[in-house]
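Hi support team,

I submitted a single chain yesterday and got back a structure, but I'm not sure I'm reading the token output correctly. Could someone confirm the output below corresponds to the sequence I sent? I've pasted both exactly as they appear in my results page.

Thanks,
R.
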Amino acid sequence: MLVAILLLPYITLSQNNDFGNWLIYIGNNKLNSKWSIHNEVQYRNHNTIGDLEQLLIKTG
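Hi R., thanks for writing in. Yes, this is the structure output for that exact sequence:
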């Protein structure tokens, strides 16, 4: 039984490890002494650059 547990990671199949990117830009732009604008852009893709999976654009 112990041998089967130790060999389990070598016997099982796992998913492929494909390379991807998650690029983030976070900024805070000051308008005047009381007000500023926060902005954030997140670009998530698959296969390095080209296969866009998700693009998030936030402001506040």
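A quick pointer for reading it: The chain has one domain: 17-59. Let us know if anything else looks off.

Best,
Support desk
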